[in-house]
Amino acid sequence: MIHSRGAQGSTAEVVWTQILQGIGGGIAAITSQVGAQASVPHVDVAMVTAVVKLLFREVGGAVGNAISGAIWTNQTVPDRLAVHLPTLNETERAQIFSSISLIRDTYPEAYSDVMKSLLITATCISILPLVLSLAMPGWHLGDTQNAVDHVDLAEDANGVGDFDDGGSVLLGGGGVSYLA
């Protein structure tokens, strides 16, 4: 991935890395969501789903964007442009810096250097979720709704599920009724 994201990467390399990232992202998203949903009582599934989606995906993506933005803007690109274009003055380099496509297409060496820094950082950070995934419990769901309620799916499919206080919920054509 590090090689193919540089300015010299071919279209096939970029497409292949996108496919691999999509597969990995899909596997990570589903396994984290199912693991979180299986580890809480049924009444908390909506909350834990929102937390997983909001906290891990959205906030994590925002943090990742902030890190990459900091690497891109805080002297990495300007420094690389200064190294690869020593004959240009600061104003000319600032004009080039304002356009990512101009940097990528016209000054590929500077672009490749910065992308290498970004991808090495991303690869190092991605080790953390991989290590944390090894600490996830191996929930066996079988025919139960989740790993903590022990409600059989066959029982739940018949319309009756147990509550902690001994009551039951009846799902019928007229809506939901709680039976104490």
TrEMBL record:
<dbReference type="GO" id="GO:0022857">
    <property type="term" value="F:transmembrane transporter activity"/>
</dbReference>
<protein>
    <submittedName>
        <fullName>Uncharacterized protein</fullName>
    </submittedName>
</protein>
<dbReference type="GO" id="GO:0012505">
    <property type="term" value="C:endomembrane system"/>
</dbReference>
<dbReference type="InterPro" id="IPR036259">
    <property type="entry name" value="MFS_trans_sf"/>
</dbReference>
<keyword id="KW-0813">Transport</keyword>
<keyword id="KW-1133">Transmembrane helix</keyword>
<keyword id="KW-0472">Membrane</keyword>
<keyword id="KW-0812">Transmembrane</keyword>
<feature type="transmembrane region" description="Helical">
    <location>
        <begin position="118"/>
        <end position="139"/>
    </location>
</feature>
<dbReference type="GO" id="GO:0005886">
    <property type="term" value="C:plasma membrane"/>
</dbReference>
